[in-house]
Specification:
The complex is a heterodimer of chains A (201) and B (399). With 201 residues, chain A is of the alpha/beta class. Helices cover 59% and strands 11% of the residues of chain A. A 5-stranded mixed sheet of chain A has the order 2-1-3-5-4, with helices on both faces. Chain B is of the alpha/beta class and 399 residues long. Classes of the chains: A alpha/beta (201), B alpha/beta (399). At the A-B interface, helix 3 and helix 4 of A face helix 4 and strand 7 of B.
């Protein structure tokens, strides 16, 4: 953590994921940094950097607008430069960690490298956290989707075979076992076949 | 193909190859989708990337083993230009050409007042005249390229320079990602751009702008994208690297085969790849161009296959280093021959395809005297690419 006596490091955050940007911004403020600007859309990225002159820009590595910053860093020495340029032998690991976490950063010359590293750590941690949350959400979502598919297939079997729900479930399960397929794949097949035959109407 | 699938090499870990969703990523996509990688016994995982900077960083830090790269990228990375110094190399050129310069309607209409004929617009003569008559406090014209270390940037600057326009003082050059070019032009954020197809043809077709000249017309046939790899990875995985080169070579032939075009476009348009409509892709490959208000043929001459295209040309590395020097990206460098040879590896290309070695006679080598003056001579315009392109070499008799 930076000592309060140090010059306040100003940061610009560029992220089209508003939820993540909010988390990262809060974490940075909590750690004592000043987030001078948060951009969701990088349309005026170069103008914003010129106007606010942040010490550091943190941008999602998957943003196509990174290449704009690459060009800026070339134009004058005052513009932030890609952090990979500062990755000396001994501390290239934190840059690699950042890239893996999906964080890329641009830093102006002469900023205290300890603060840069600390700030990068905050961003990396929040990006990872967000990624974990998203994976969890996706898995819950796909479980829900799976459930819906299976329910639909069961309904079709019940209607077609005139059987009850447990029997339909058993039939589905047996098919999956016999074909060594996932239940959802079997369900999807059944639905498409039935739809083809007009059975789902 | 199924019996081949068991022949997968290196303890199952896939080779990670990055690509940017552009038309010239086609050989990578086809090698994957049509099983050319698999037939060579390599398990490849393609990773769609959002920016050239991301490709560079991920290859430099071994998150990717190799990638679809701008031909200048392995040179810039190996020299540490605009990034950490990270040894990269290429042994396979994926494509030649494909770029064009397009300007917006407003600028085009204005240029008409300064042009005696359409030729004056195409050569930039009208632009020069217009800039001369502009008041000093007028907002500068803005041209976009896709990346600072790219053929697009160098070709645009060369074209401007030949017309007598100072690309640093008389106009402003900014970077805009390819997919955003058309919209930026439409909204007037930029006045023109140099980008790969189909973004030039689409501007013409949609009535947003006018394509003035192709990269092919500026430089002749020159490498555009390469298969660039992390040099340390290449060192440790030579067999795999050679297998990938063989697979890409076959994929390139497949891409250039006209009878495959329908399938090619349908694969490329898939959400995993370019995620666009077939209509958007067709101009990238076909010689048929939309009808615009101009009377000149505009083929970008994008080519993918054959040894004249695929074999790495160290002479092109010499040319690119001189462009970097010319536009103040590179301060100076002593051993041009050595860098060109280490980054553009003809030996591995020959080895992969079972071709004879080049031997000691490297016809592209600069003599000691030439090497000492090369950067300045190219920067001063005393040496140009031969009008037919890099394969014919350089025109060293420019006055």
């Amino acid at each position: 953590m930076p000592s309060p006596l140090e010059k306040e490091l100003t940061v610009m955050l560029v992220d089209n994921e508003p939820a993540r940007a909010a988390i990262v911004e809060q974490a940075m403020i909590d750690s004592g940094y000043r987030v001078i600007r948060r951009l969701e859309n990088a349309k005026n990225l170069t103008e914003a950097v010129t106007e606010f002159q942040p010490d550091m820009v943190i941008i999602d590595i998957e943003s196509p607008d990174r290449d704009m910053l690459e060009n800026m860093s070339r134009l004058t020495k005052d513009n932030p430069r890609p952090i990979v340029m500062f990755a000396e032998e001994d501390d290239s690991r934190h840059v690699e960690a950042a890239i893996r976490a999906g964080v890329s950063a641009y830093v102006v010359d002469g900023v205290n490298s300890g603060s840069v590293k600390a700030l990068l750590q905050v961003a990396i941690a929040r990006f990872r956290e967000f990624q974990a949350l998203r994976l969890e959400l996706e898995s819950v979502k796909s479980q829900l989707e799976d459930r819906k598919l299976i329910d639909k297939a069961k309904g079709l079997i019940m209607k077609h075979q005139k059987c009850d729900e447990p029997a339909a479930y058993q039939a589905l399960r047996k098919l999956a076992m016999d074909r060594s397929q996932r239940m959802t794949d079997v369900a999807r097949n059944i639905i498409s076949v039935m739809e083809l035959m007009g059975g789902s109407k | 193909m199924s019996q081949m699938e068991t022949n997968i090499t290196q303890n199952g870990a896939p080779v990670r190859i990055g690509f940017i969703p552009l038309i010239d990523c086609a050989p990578f996509v086809i090698a994957q989708e049509k099983g050319f990688f698999l037939k060579e016994g390599v398990n490849v995982e393609l990773s769609k990337e959002a920016s050239w900077a991301s490709i560079r960083d991920k290859v430099a830090f071994n998150i990717l083993d190799g990638a679809h790269m701008l031909a200048s990228m392995p040179i810039a990375a190996s020299l540490g230009i605009g990034s950490i110094k990270a040894a990269m190399q290429t042994s396979f050129t994926v494509s030649h050409n494909g770029n064009g310069i397009t300007i917006g309607n407003a600028l085009y209409e204005e240029l008409k007042h300064y042009a005696a004929s359409s030729l004056d617009i195409r050569t930039g003569v009208a632009l020069k005249k217009m800039l001369n008559s502009r008041s000093a406090d007028a907002a500068p014209l803005r041209f976009a390229v896709v990346y600072p270390y790219s053929s697009h940037n160098y070709q645009l600057r060369d074209w401007l320079c030949r017309a007598g326009v100072d690309s640093d003082k008389d106009v402003q050059i900014v970077v805009v990602p390819p997919v955003k070019m058309l919209n930026s032009l439409r909204q007037g954020d930029i006045d023109g751009y140099c980008v790969g197809e189909p973004w030039n043809s689409l501007a013409v077709e949609q009535g947003v702008g006018h394509m003035l000249v192709t990269g092919y017309e500026i430089w002749g046939s020159t490498p555009e994208k390469v298969f660039g790899v992390n040099s340390a990875w290449a060192e440790q995985n030579q067999e795999v690297h050679l297998s990938i080169i063989r697979a890409l070579e076959k994929a390139c032939l497949w891409v250039d085969e006209p009878s495959n075009q329908t399938e090619l476009l349908s694969i490329l348009s898939h959400p995993d790849y370019l995620n666009c409509t077939l209509e958007q892709l067709v101009y990238g490959f076909s010689a048929i161009k939309p009808k615009g208000q101009f009377d000149w043929p505009m083929e970008a001459y994008q080519r993918f296959s054959g040894s004249v295209i695929n074999k790495p040309l160290p002479s092109y590395a010499l040319w690119i280093m001189a462009q970097m020097y010319r536009w103040q990206q590179l301060g100076g460098i002593r051993s041009l021959n050595k860098v060109a040879e280490q980054v553009y590896r003809q030996d591995l290309y020959n080895k992969a395809l079972g071709l004879p070695e080049e031997g000691e006679s490297r016809d592209w080598y600069l003599s000691a005297e030439e090497e000492a003056t090369w950067l300045d001579a190219v920067a001063a315009g005393k040496i140009r690419l031969h009008p037919d392109g890099i394969l014919t070499g350089f025109d060293k008799s420019v006055k």
